[in-house]
User: Fold these one by one.
Assistant:
Number 1:
Amino acid sequence: MSTVIETKGLVKRYGRIAAVDGVDLTVEKGEVFGLLGPNGSGKTTTILLLLGLTEPTAGTVRVLGLDPLRNPLAVKRRVGYMPDQIGFYDNLTGRENLLYTARLLGLSGAEASKRIDEALERVRLVEAGERRVSTYSRGMRQRLGLAEVLIKQAEIAILDEPTSGLDPQSTQELLDLILALSREGMTIVLSSHLLAMVQSVCDRVALFSRGRIGLSGRVEDLTSDVLGGTHVVEVEAQDVDLAQALADAPHITGVTQQRPGLWRVDADEDARPEIARRVVMAGGRLTAMSIRHTTLDEVYVRFFEEDRHHAAAA
Ligand SMILES: Nc1ncnc2c1ncn2[C@@H]1O[C@H](COP(=O)(O)OP(=O)(O)OP(=O)(O)O)[C@@H](O)[C@H]1O
């Protein structure tokens, strides 16, 4: 693996506000890396610093081994950027917009047409490509944004809130497209405040809070480190003390009673068969059981709540 993005002690202050407050970030080639956190936590500012679009107050940034402030053109050539609000010429068609980008890249007519055809096909805008962008939905604009990244043959794509404002189906389509690009070797950095929605596509994530990265790592590792398990089983049962019945059960990392007859069981694998067996063995009556994966939203809430408690106690 080789490191393609590295920041050390990155700080960006706007007057008294530290938008980014000491960020150390490493992204490896071919990863899908998520910058996740609520509005205002410093994700966009971090992205602007990676692209050399704003100057750090302190710290260093290297993108593909280059300092984006000193080599802005070299970085721009090799890194595709899709901002939160993508600017297209609304009166031009999708294809004409891409042609404009291709000209800026200095591509010859034949090469530009070839790349545009391939990109439109890839993002499923072949027919819509002939229509004015003013008629596009938000999802189509986002896909046209990705087409632009494709035309550039970027080594890294940096996508700011790519799924915001999209309906569930368009979100899934865009995430599938991002995964496909990653499988072909493109490194992807994306930001989002919708933690659960993007956790499925990210190899690693960094959770931002107030300009800092509180936690980072693989999603499964974060959920098991912070929550003690990767699965949550909700159990409804009568005539049983579930905490006692599961006391020494394997793979169970926590049992919390939510109300009489209803428990949340944290586990590091699908523990439903063992739970069912133990309820019955203890003479109880199982009335319902459901399972889901733990989400990054839960990790976020738990971690930053503890963080706040520690800060308050200090
Ligand atoms: N140009 C600026 N001038 C002053 N303050 C700014 C500027 N840009 C960002 N900030 C502040 O820095 C903090 C971090 O903002 P940033 O846009 O990086 O957060 P974000 O996590 O990307 O949020 P969002 O999802 O809303 O874009 C916020 O408090 C914001 O108000």
Number 2:
Amino acid sequence: MGVPEENKLQYLTGFGNDFGSEALPGALPVGQNNPRVCPYGLYAEQLSGTTFTAPRSQNKRSWLYRIRPSVTHEPFHPLNFPAEQLTADFERAVVTPNQLRWRPFSIPTDDVDFVRGLFTICGAGSPGKKDGYAIHVYTASASMDDCCLGNADGDMLIVPQQGGLRITTEFGIMEVLPGEICVIQRGMRFSVALLGSNARGYVLEVFQGHFTLPDLGLIGSNGLANPRDFDTPVAWFEERACNYTVIQKFEGELFSASQAFSPFNVVAWHGNYTPYKYDLAKFCPVNAVAFDHPDPSIFTVLTCPSAVPGTAVADFVIFPPRWTVAEHTFRPPYYHRNTMSEFMGLVRGMYEAKQEGFSPGGASLHLCMTPHGPDTQTFERAILPDSQQPSHLPGDTLAFMFETSYTPRVTPAALGSPHIDRNYYKCWMGLKSHFDRNWTPNAEPEGEAPPHANGN
Ligand SMILES: O=C(O)Cc1cc(O)ccc1O
Ligand SMILES: [Fe+2]
């Protein structure tokens, strides 16, 4: 099969559906998963995303019909990838109650592909015990060349910040641009080609469970990320003899094996365990239309639930372009200390809580109970009376947050990174006291008090 051009890529729409796709007519067996001989002489292979016995509502698996099965490979050998750069061992990492921020991570000038450009910032738990998560950034200047990654540790939610990615998977091909995200679930093999000369972005990897859409509760049956806006690639295969390298991430370590053919040889597949992508511009935000600042959970795109209701392993939350209209309200994020920890990144534009220092391609991390909030300039602007006009948040902005319940430990490499901003704390040092012991309710500028405060 020829490689489809960009505008020819096709997707199946819906979230978590039981999909089926065939690249050749009749390649999907009818009425059973394991015919004695599969159509076109294909091998049947099941990829499980849950235990076999997981409740039906959570059970995930897909059947892949492929030219040769994935078991046909030379033995795996350790790749000797630097453990300080990519890890799932957070016992040796560090905790700090300090606010952390990184300037944009620089993109290598020598040839570095997506896998070799992964850099672990922080994480918690362990892939072996199937709990917790890791947060990485990637910086890449080269495509993966006859090389794919399969991650035995967990699902990877990829947030491109700069440079589009063409991701070939066993299920088909997807293109993911900045402003879009994709999820490659545990075990699915994929190869990342760069659409431009380089790429940078963020990865949230969850060691337990899978991402799902959050419940909408009283919001009703529509809004936020709508299921129909998620795209799964259609089957695509190549039959190509080559020296192909399969990299397996296993307990945070990388192993590689050679095989004599492309792993993207799946002619047809069906099931509910697939990679998918989503355009964040399709997110339909719901927010305050009268007053006050709701919690950022209103902007949850995807959540990876834990066994405790309402306590996610990790939430993926965005701060999309939107109108802000709340009256008699301090509109930026409130000052706060949380039980959950917050890793933030910026895809483009400016984040509403920071006037400077938080740049696209950079990051911040506020561990649980670490105080944070708007910087001094943002605060001083937001208390001015003229801050209350309906306004569109600074231009075309897209920040996001990985909000996690286990407190992450930060890797020594991330703490010692040349990109770390050791002056971050200074952005709050100018927050002066506005306390006025002689203040009286009448001193409040006219029109500023809430209508109900004077009985109206
Ligand atoms: O810390 C942050 O900037 C993220 C955030 C945004 C918001 O609107 C409310 C709370 C919160 O943690
Ligand atoms: Fe926060």
